[in-house]
């Protein structure tokens, strides 16, 4: 029997920065290169605030495809009847207002990480999305990588027991002394700093390895404690650490994220009967090792697995979006609204304890 025709998802792209380009290049790859035959992606429109940039972007990232419309604002993308879903790739503090405009226009939405600047903004977006009956997901690409699926499978098959501790570390050297103070990593008006930029990637592993573990029964952490070191340049956090407890699973997460160092340690999860080490960088690890120990703590077996694929890795999340929309879902079961909200609530609390207050006007929703 021949395969049914693949479902085609028609994307509008909001903004023309770095990650928008990476995403478009990935979704335009032939899905067969990743063994996908049920969905396919088309880019039909690109919007930019800046005259000429959308067309330049189409030329550079989509081979100048004449069928893609270049708009010199974002609103025309939301109004375009040919667009099914929009991908929002502006700096963090504009995710809320752009996603809201898209949802109001009844477009499905994939929003770059972090979903919004605060949990209040996210809750409001999700309320409106429910009313408008559209799909919303944070672009948590790491959750959809083949290696991540493999980690979950191995944890399950290898009978490691319940998780006890998870240590996650992610750093990037943004050369902040040389950056413009307007750069999104340094500018507090753009939600700059380590927590909102890199924090999503330690949280995804906490969610995979602890929150989703059967021993946790979907329970949220009951205690959050955070520390921040701030840049004297603009006051955003350059180094942040936080700890979460998951009392149901009897597990603790400790995380460290930094924007001024190139060395990252990855993630170590200690289970009752072994450990899992996920390589750095945590947003796109290429290998992991599972070790089993005996009652004395001696390693009795270890397995290392590697993951590779064609493309940058941003297309797997797009496949999830297409399948969910095809099936009439309003959220992904894999990266659900509950998980997105949990992440934003942790960030709110770590920012509160770290004394990171956004400049006036940045937070668009005060409480929901
Ligand atoms: N998933 C991943 O791997 C990654 C995700 N990200 C996330 O994507 C988002 C964008 O990051 P990145 O692509 O690196 O950012 P860039 O600065 O490269 O691009 C952001 C784009 O947003 C648009 N924009 C709208 N308003 C503003 C504003 N006030 N200031 C600056 N730009 C604005 C601009 O496009 P235009 O002028 O065309 O409108 C700009 O090019 C962030 O939220 C970040 O967390 C970033 C990197 C990797
Ligand atoms: O999402 C991201 O992943 C890679 C980092 O370099 C980048 O700053 C961040 O936004």
Walk me through what this model shows.
The protein is α/β, with parallel strands linked by helices. It folds into 2 domains: 7-141 and 315-335, 3-Layer(aba) Sandwich (Rossmann fold); 146-308 and 342-354, Dihydrodipicolinate Reductase, domain 2. Helices cover 29% and strands 25% of the residues. The protein has 9 helices and 14 strands. It has helices at residues 18-27, 53-61, 75-79, 95-104, 119-132, 146-157, 194-211, 315-326, 337-354; strands spanning 7-14, 39-47, 69-71, 85-88, 108-111, 136-138, 163-171, 223-230, 237-246, 251-258, 266-271, 274-278, 287-293, 299-306. The strands form 2 sheets. The protein has an 8-stranded mixed sheet, covered by helices on one side. Strands 3-2-1-4-5-6 form a 6-stranded parallel sheet, with helices on both faces. Strand 12 and strand 13 form a beta hairpin. Helix 4 packs parallel to helix 5, helix 5 (119-132) runs antiparallel to helix 9 and helix 7 crosses helix 9 (337-354). It binds NADPH dihydro-nicotinamide-adenine-dinucleotide phosphate and the ligand O=C1OC[C@@H](O)[C@H](O)[C@H]1O.
């Amino acid at each position: 029997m021949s395969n049914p025709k693949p479902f085609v998802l028609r994307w509008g792209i909001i903004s023309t920065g770095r990650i928008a380009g990476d995403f478009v290049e990935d979704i335009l790859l032939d899905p067969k290169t990743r063994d996908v035959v049920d969905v396919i992606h088309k880019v039909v429109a690109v919007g930019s605030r800046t005259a000429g940039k959308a067309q330049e972007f189409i030329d550079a990232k989509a081979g100048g495809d004449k069928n893609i419309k270049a708009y010199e604002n974002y609103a025309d993308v939301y109004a375009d009847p040919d667009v099914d879903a929009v991908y929002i790739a502006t700096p963090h503090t504009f995710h809320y207002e752009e996603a809201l405009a898209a949802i109001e226009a009844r477009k499905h939405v994939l929003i770059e990480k972090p979903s919004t600047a605060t949990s209040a903004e996210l809750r409001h977006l999700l309320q409106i999305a429910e009313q408008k009956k559209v799909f919303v997901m944070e672009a948590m690409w790491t959750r959809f990588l083949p290696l991540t699926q493999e980690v979950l499978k191995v944890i399950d098959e290898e009978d490691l027991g319940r998780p006890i501790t998870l240590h996650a570390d992610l750093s990037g050297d943004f050369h902040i002394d040389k950056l413009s103070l307007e750069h999104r990593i340094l500018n507090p008006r753009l939600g700059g700093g380590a927590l909102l930029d890199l924090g999503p990637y330690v949280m995804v592993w906490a969610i995979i390895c602890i929150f989703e573990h059967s021993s946790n029964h979907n329970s949220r952490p009951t205690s959050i404690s955070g520390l921040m070191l701030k840049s004297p340049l603009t006051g955003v956090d350059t180094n942040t650490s936080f700890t979460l407890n998951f009392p149901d699973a009897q597990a603790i997460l400790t995380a460290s994220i930094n924007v001024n160092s190139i060395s990252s340690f990855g993630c170590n999860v200690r289970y009752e009967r072994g450990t899992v080490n996920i390589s750095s960088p945590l947003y796109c690890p290429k290998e992991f090792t599972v070790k089993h120990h005996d009652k004395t703590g001696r390693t009795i077996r270890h397995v290392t697995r590697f993951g590779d694929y064609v493309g940058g890795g941003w297309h797997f999340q797009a496949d999830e979006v297409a399948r969910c929309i095809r099936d009439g879902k309003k959220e992904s079961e894999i990266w659900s609204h509950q998980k997105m909200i949990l992440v934003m609530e942790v960030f709110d609390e770590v920012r509160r304890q770290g004394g990171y207050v956004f400049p006036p006007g940045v937070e668009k929703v005060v409480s929901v």
